[in-house]
Design goal:
This protein has 187 residues and is an all-alpha fold. It is built from 7 helices and no strands. Helix 3 packs parallel to helix 7 and helix 5 packs antiparallel against helix 7.
Length: 187
């Protein structure tokens, strides 16, 4: 699959392949866990949809006063999915990127793109992390404390709610960037 075909494919196909329980806003979740998962998946899908139909160059544009691009937001979201669900909640180690996420100049390196980052690679990495995150969200008790010592007073419910909030915030940033690039609005 090319970057252009991936970017133009309907995101519901992109995301529901990895999160098959995703429902539409017209349905109502039957459990708290299902509600958390569905609301998070809804925001994840909104974020992925923002790169649909764009070239890799367009996805790297920073057309607003911030230095954010659609691709850098997706890359950042991938890193923090992994950090919150895999490292903070599940206790896995991630020597490549944790805990340092600031450059010597104070810049958040989780937004930095490399020449190897494309729509295809970044969306694929995000989808792979969604699978891992949903596994944690499905298998851990919602009241289970976070494994990361500094967050042991919080639980999986907190992590899921935090990730809904953060993903929605980034989807909002992505809305503004996408509208600035080509005028496209909405989910």
């Amino acid at each position: 699959m090319t970057a252009r075909s991936l970017a133009t494919a309907p995101s519901r196909l992109l995301l529901t392949q990895y999160a098959p329980e995703m429902t539409t806003p017209e349905t109502s979740p039957t459990t708290e866990r299902a509600g958390l998962r569905e609301f998070l998946n809804y925001q994840r899908e909104a974020l992925v949809r923002k790169v649909e139909g764009l070239s890799n160059a367009e996805a790297r544009l920073t057309p607003t006063s911030s230095q954010l691009s659609l691709l850098s937001i997706l890359k950042h979201s991938t890193v923090w999915e992994r950090r919150w669900f895999q490292v903070i909640m599940a206790g896995h180690t991630s020597t490549e990127e944790w805990p340092g996420s600031r450059s010597q100049t104070g810049e958040d390196v989780t937004f930095q793109l490399t020449d190897m980052d494309t729509i295809e690679t970044v969306v694929a990495a995000y989808q792979a992390q969604i699978v891992a995150s949903n596994e944690v969200l499905t298998t851990f008790d919602l009241d289970a404390p976070c494994a990361w010592p500094d967050m042991a007073h919080q639980n999986l419910r907190f992590v899921a709610l935090h990730m809904i909030e953060e993903t929605a915030r980034h989807a909002g940033h992505a809305d503004i960037i996408r509208e600035t690039i080509d005028g496209r609005k909405g989910r």
